[in-house]
Amino acid sequence: MLFAYDTEAMLAFTTALINTEPGASNSGEDELSSIDELEALLDEHDYSGRRDRDAAELEEIRGLRTEFRRYWNVDRDEAAELVNAVLREERALPQLARHGNWDWHVHATAPDAPLASRMRVEAAMAFIDVIRTDDFDRLRSCAADGCSAVLVDLSRNRSKRYCDVGNCGNRMNVIAYRARKSANS
Fold first, then answer.
1. pTM of the model as a whole
2. Which of 4, 30, 118, 164 is 20 to 30 A off residue 65, Cα-Cα?
3. In this predicted model, what pLDDT tens digit does every residue of 159-172 receive, in sequence order?
């Protein structure tokens, strides 16, 4: 494990949320267009705390995709500024928490805080670890042609190039295989 399990879980969630944007998935559709899709995403990532389950909350969460994508498009110093701004705006107060199947980990908002606020702070807390360990190069865009998805490379040898959204790795391997085969013909 590279980071603490809650950091890795939040990085995975942040990546999954960003990758619901139109164009980041194979369907080309917005994968977060309904409350049911939001609920499924939250359940898949074992997201705890308050959920309003209404259109306003869905729109707030959809808006976070653009905010979170910025971490993939800035350098480490700019990311630190983004993190600090979120923590100030949300008046984050880190505390240890334990719930469900999770052992002790850090929360910096109350469980009844609005979902978007909790997500912003939890993402900021995860990016603190990425910045402090100087592992910002693990935040990548998918290397597949035509894919706008993002990924977090948690592999030991830092070799992950393709997202988990679609079949980008397989698709690019097939393209490379066909190119080699035609070159040898």
1. 0.89
2. 4
3. 999 988 878 877 77
